[in-house]
Every structure is written in structure tokens, then in C-alpha cells.
Amino acid sequence: MTVSFKPPAIPLRALDALDWAPRFGKLPEKFYTRLAPTPLPEPYLVAFNPDAAPLIGLAPGEESRADFASFFTGNQAFAGSSPLAAVYSGHQFGVYVPQLGDGRAISLGEVVGSAGACEIQLKGAGRTPYSRSGDGRAVLRSSIREYLCSEAMHGLGIATTRALAITGSDQPVIRETVETAAVVTRLAPSLVRFGSFEFWYHRRDAEAVRQLADYVIREFYPEFEGAEDRYPLFLREVVRRTARMIAQWQAVGFMHGVMNTDNMSILGLTLDYGPFGFMEAFEPGHICNHTDEGGRYAYNMQPQVGLWNLYALGQALVPLMEPEIIEAELKTYDAQFDEVMNGMLRAKLGLASPHDDDHLLVNELFGLMAESHADYTLFFRTLSGLHAADAAGDAPLRDLVINRERFDAWAVSYRRRLTLENSVDAQRSVLMNANNPKYVLRNYLAEVAIRKARDERDYSEIENLRKLLSRPYDEQPENAHYAALPPDWASGLEVSCSS
Ligand code: AMP
Ligand code: MG
After folding, report:
1. What is the tens place of the pLDDT at every residue in 379-405?
2. Which of 43, 165, 182, 189 is deepest in the core (most CB within 10 A)?
3. Residues with Cβ within 5 Å of ion ligand 2?
4. Distance from residue 131's CA to the centre of ligand 1 (Å)
């Protein structure tokens, strides 16, 4: 008999009756500053994500209330919430910055939801003691990008913070041009970062490092609590989750853009969506963040940056374990990464079991794609339709590359490999389609939604994309145009750290 596990249903609640259960705010006061969001004039609802509502136990329909936007802009306080901004530091582009912190995000506290306690954070809710020269705001453009991408990543099966809503206000916000303000409601079990630990280590406060580690272990890694070697076990698990997350990024062609250690989640969640991008014309060294001139966070750098960042975390954990133990845990990264990456590459190619020469097949494929600047998503999705027995139907794939002879030669070895494991077309394409998304958040798709929202106050495309990207592996024939190559006008789009 199989028993399917269903989490106990939690009662769904009205907006002003959420089940607040403070958690991070129970740490000593030095970990944060308590303060309320700064109101924005006449807020309105831009987007609401019903898929995320259960995470905070919110009853359906509550988003229609007249005061919804006011609550989620921070103008109106939830009874039971205890707003705060957390302190952290971090390595930005390799340089240690001793003081960062939530400069524009304010956490309202945790509520009990369908997946346990969930932190609610309003990003763009005003200045905090950690704002430095910033205005504490986020613009509508970047808020739409964060909202859509976090939900797209969730749809892809990659661990991430979630997004519940966007609210907007006509209050002007100055970036390269004058834009308007918005607030994204972010949800996550915790928003503690590598940089949260670095802050205390570099201030030589070993006791605070321990308090924070004990808190994170107790709340999020309870399986290690009480174990004598809980700190090494905790670090090993952070290494494992980070390696897995980055391998998944590579597999779908996601580029974070700003992998500073303050943007690295201690839970292995994709965190802080800024100048991210999905690989389109394949180029291993592609840099999605226009501000990243040196290419520190280029696509093919991400795996090693993940390890670099873990070293920064490991350093901060020196008060808790012997350096040799930390080193040994960090050394598990490469094997963890390779295992997930190789498994995902096999799945992307529809291969059932590993074979010694697979790396040759994969390397040649990536070389071929790079030479042609083949569209990453479209190429892999189209590959799912290849027939193992004959090349007569290869035209859609050959059309995506320039060097057709090179493709044909590769296809011969790929077919040989498929025959070796008696691959059945129908089964293989099911496996491949479950691993090669048809739809990703291409920059131009986000840009269309942003322009409609900004220029016409038409928010419908945000919702269209959210729905589309919640099922990225499904065929969705009615939405096939969203899988097309970017239009010519999109070639000039640039994304930077400005948000
Ligand atoms: P990010 O690059 O968005 O991860 O931000 C890096 C740091 O700058 C974090 O401490 C942010 O809170 C802070 N920050 C970014 N933008 C602003 C802003 N407009 N106002 C205040 N702080 C900001
Ligand atoms: Mg950040």
C-alpha cells in the first residue's frame, strides 16, 4: 500500500487575521533594526499571485479588498507583525564591504502557512539604517522582473524566494530616468544570507556567528540540532544545496548577474533578482549584467563563483569549527555540482544511464551551439523531437545552427549513443521535455510586460507571463508564440544593477 503524504490543511485567513509567529525577530536586537515601512502615496495593486497565497495562509479573494494594496505597500500595519531590517555584509564583486543590510527591504515577520513558517518581506518599502546613499525604493520595472523571475524559477523546479504581489505608486523614483515606485512582496522561510554570517565574523563577534548558526540550524536544519558535529553537517548541507542550485541554473541557462555573497541564501534559494537573464544565443562567457564589465558573473563563471562564495561563508564560520574541517566540507562542492550537472545534462539529452564518453558528446554539442550562437532554450526543446532512427526530420534543428556539417556529424554520434541504450523516441521525448523548458523569461518578454504596465497601466501581461511560466515544461500550444526567438528590437535591451 502506498500512503501519499499530504500536509495538514491549515485554516485560510483574512488579510488582517494572519497567523503571525515571529522567528528572526526573536534573535537579539543587534541582528536587525526595528522600523516601519515608509508609506507611499495612493498605492494600487499591480500583480497578485494566487499560487503563493497559501504560503502565508491567505484566503482566496482577499486580494480584492480595497485595503490590500495598502497592507502590502507597508502603508497599513498588520496586527501581529513586527517589521525590521536585517543587518549583513558581503563580498561585492570580490571586494569585502563591511556594512550592507536590508537597505530597502523590510521584513514584516513570519506567518504560519501551508509550508510552515514563512517570512514576508516588502522590497522597496523605504529607507532603513542600511540604505547608505540609496533611496530605499524599488522601481516598477525591476519589481516586475523580480516577481516574474522568482515565479518562473519556481516553475522550473529551482529553489527560490517566492513573490506574492506587486503594488505600485505614482511617486517618482530617480534612476537613469524618472520611473515610479513599486513594492514586491517576497516570501521565503528565511532571507539569511552568507553575508549575514560574514558581518559578525569580520567584526570579530564570534558569539554572534554562533547565535546565528544555532538559529539557522534550529529553525531550518533541525535534523542537525543536537548533533556534536552539527556545524560541519550544516555547512555540508549548504554546500550541497548551493551546488545543486547552481547546477540547475546552468542547466536552464539562468544567469543571476550579481552573485555577491550578500545575495547568496543560507537555504540555497535563488535570491535577489536584479540584472538576471536567461541564455538565448548561446555563448559560454555571456555576461547578462551590463554593469559587470569584467564578466565576474558570466554564465560559465557561475559554478566557480558558487564555490568562491562558499569559501567566504566558510571563513565566517571559523569560530565554529577547525579550518581543516571547513576546508574538507567545501571540497565536497565539485563532486556535488558534477553529480547534479551531469544528471541534468543526461536528462536534457534524454539519456537513461551514464556512459564514459558522454562528456565528449556534451562538449561537442556546446561547441556547436556556441559556434552558431544557437538559441539555448529553443535548441534543447527542439532536440526532444529528434528521431533516433533517421535524420529525415532534422530540419528544425539544422535550421538553428550555421555549421550544418558539424551538426550532422554530432547527430551521428548522438544517434549512435541513443541506439546503444535502445532509446525509444516517445519515452525519450517525455523525459527531455520535462528537463528542457519550452518557456523561459526572456528579457524581451519581461520588457513587453513592463512597457504595458508603465505606459498603459495595463498589467495583464504580467499575469499572462506568470501563468505561462508556472508550467514551463508543458507544451501550451495556445502560447507557442512565447517560445519564439526574440524579435529584432530586443537585441538592444540591456539590464544593469539599476533597480
Ligand atoms: P543588491 O545589489 O540589489 O543586492 O543590493 C545591494 C545592497 O544595496 C543591499 O544592501 C541593498 O539593500 C542595497 N540597496 C540597493 N538598492 C537600494 C536602494 N534603492 N536604496 C537603499 N538600499 C539599496
Ligand atoms: Mg542584494
Report:
1. 999 999 999 999 999 999 999 999 999
2. 182
3. 263, 272
4. 7
